[in-house]
Specification:
By secondary structure, the chain is an alpha/beta fold. It has three domains: 4-135 and 303-338, Rossmann fold, CATH 3.40.50; 138-297, Dihydrodipicolinate Reductase, domain 2 (2-Layer Sandwich), CATH 3.30.360.10; 350-432, ACT domain (Alpha-Beta Plaits, 2-Layer Sandwich). Helix content is 35%, strand content 25%. It has helices spanning 13-24, 26-33, 64-68, 86-95, 105-122, 138-145, 160-172, 176-185, 194-197, 200-214, 233-241, 303-320, 366-376, 407-418, and strands at 4-9, 37-43, 59-61, 75-78, 99-102, 126-127, 151-157, 224-225, 244-254, 259-269, 281-288, 292-299, 351-361, 381-387, 395-402, 405-406, 423-432. The strands form two sheets. Strands 7, 8, 9, 10, 11, 12, 13, 14, 15, 16 and 17 form an eleven-stranded mixed beta sheet that branches. Strands 3-2-1-4-5-6 form a six-stranded parallel beta sheet, with helices on both faces. Strand 14 and strand 15 form a beta hairpin. Helix 4 packs parallel to helix 5 (105-122), helix 7 crosses helix 8 and helix 13 packs antiparallel against helix 14 (407-418). The longest helix is centred in the N-terminal third of the chain and has 18 residues, at 105-122. The relative contact order is 0.13.
Length: 438
């Protein structure tokens, strides 16, 4: 049988890794796919000729549309990233009847509904395993392995840069800005780290996981997103003293009122497996009604781990090229006519527990005033930790953990607390998740 001819858009870190893994593992891949898979065309403005295998077998151009429009190419691999021209190239490939494999989570989160509709009409597949959590096969697990289950919630550490920063802050007592600078020097964070530290990258991925879990349209704009820039080394220390670790968590949860989709710093009990995922590693915890909890852990980025997921998608597509489109695995796990537009809950209606940190005058009656406000808003306090001031200092740090309440209740309470003359500065808030089965 003739090998499947592939066109590669991008010969950077992931593109070069994909070419190398395809070349090194060609025989094993052919055994799995049932036929050979070769990159015959590639588009790139620059690439490392010494680091990429098989360049002499590729027709290389700087014009990506030459690859997308070439009739010899059966599968287009989009690894250039970003929204444009990636969207236009993918849609053109689909229009030409070509299957697409991409690692571009931003593209899928923002334009996936349009792209999948076009693919469905043309009878081609768009595969995107590498778009979420790098080499971890979480999309395949949720789309196929858990298809007998009703997914109740998903929680993930799905950005390695943020996880590296928080790990260093906890283990070495370092400040956020110091660790961010090192992450940039090590190549974990971009020169502009906004997507990583502000949670945008994680929100792209959570948007995709939510659609796979609940059969809803992709709705990136509905994801509540909060970064880690306001997490202080103090918060990390106090969380540890209370038996928690702070992680930048993406949470998607099904409730009777609608779907929660949120990315924010979160206190997690240190006994939870996911709380012990450190450094640049990723992990996704899925709660399913029949299986219960299952944890998927591994490298969330890097040339070889991401190439692993890209090539797994290529193999899947190669296997299904001759399969009727109606018998293929649906792009978002549910049949296209079964995607349901369930309401997305605003963050004010989300229920969770909270960690609060505030600076207050060190005098009698202060704690009573704060707890009175909590009671007025029907908020129960789980624990209080008061750090006594050093000699000569007139202000103390008060730490509180609440029981589960609606976000609007804690917002009202914080607004009232900050009005007290005895409170100085902002009341810092971090949400708390126990990640149990309730």
């Amino acid at each position: 049988m003739e090998p499947v001819k592939v066109g590669l858009l991008g010969l950077g870190t992931v593109g070069g890794g994909t070419a190398n893994v395809l070349a090194r593992n060609a025989a094993e891949i052919a055994r799995r796919a049932g036929r050979g898979i070769v990159i015959t065309h590639a588009a790139a403005h620059s690439y490392d000729t010494d680091a990429i295998m098989g360049l002499d077998q590729m027709k290389i151009t700087q014009d990506a549309y030459e690859v997308v429009n070439d009739p010899e190419v059966s599968i287009v691999i989009e690894l250039i990233g970003g929204y444009s021209p990636a969207k236009e190239l993918v849609l053109q490939a689909i229009e030409n009847g070509k299957h697409v494999v991409t690692a571009n989570k931003a593209l899928i989160a923002m334009h996936g509904n349009e792209i999948f509709a076009a693919a469905q009409e043309k009878g081609v597949t768009v595969a995107f395993e590498a778009g979420v959590a790098g080499g971890i096969p979480i999309i395949k697990a949720m789309r196929e392995g858990l298809s007998a289950n009703r997914i109740e919630w998903v929680a993930g550490i799905i950005n390695g840069t943020g996880n590296f920063i928080l790990t260093e802050m906890r283990d070495k007592g370092r400040d956020f800005d110091d660790v961010l600078a090192e992450a940039q020097a090590l190549g974990y964070a971009e020169a502009d780290p906004t997507f990583d530290v502000e949670g945008i990258d994680a929100a792209h991925k959570l948007c995709i996981l939510s659609s796979l879990a609940f059969g809803i349209p992709l709705q990136f704009d509905a994801v509540y997103t909060e970064g880690i820039g306001n997490v202080s080394s103090e918060d990390v220390v106090y969380a540890n003293q209370l038996g928690y670790r702070i992680k930048h968590l993406g949470v998607a949860r099904r409730t009777e009122q609608g779907i929660e989709m949120r990315v924010h710093p979160t206190l997690i009990p240190e006994k939870c497996l996911i709380a012990n995922v450190d450094g640049v590693m990723n992990a996704v915890l899925v709660q399913a009604d029949k299986l219960g909890p299952s944890l998927y852990y591994g490298a969330g980025a890097g040339a070889d781990p991401t190439a692993s997921a890209v090539i797994a998608d290529i193999i899947d597509v190669a296997r299904t090229i001759t399969t009727d489109v109606q018998n293929r695995v649906p792009h978002l796990a549910f049949q296209p006519d079964q995607i349901v537009d369930i309401p997305i809950l605003p963050i004010t209606e989300v229920t969770t527990a909270y960690y609060l940190r505030m600076q207050a005058d060190d005098r009698p009656g202060v704690l009573a005033e704060i707890t009175r406000i909590m009671g007025d808003n029907d908020i129960s306090i789980e624990a209080v930790l008061q750090k006594e001031p050093e000699s000569g200092v007139t202000r103390a740090t008060i730490i509180m953990l609440t029981q589960k309440i609606r976000e609007r209740q804690i917002i009202a309470a914080i607004d009232a607390i900050t009005q007290l003359d005895v409170i100085h500065g902002d009341v810092h808030r971090i949400r708390v998740e126990t990640l149990d089965a309730d």
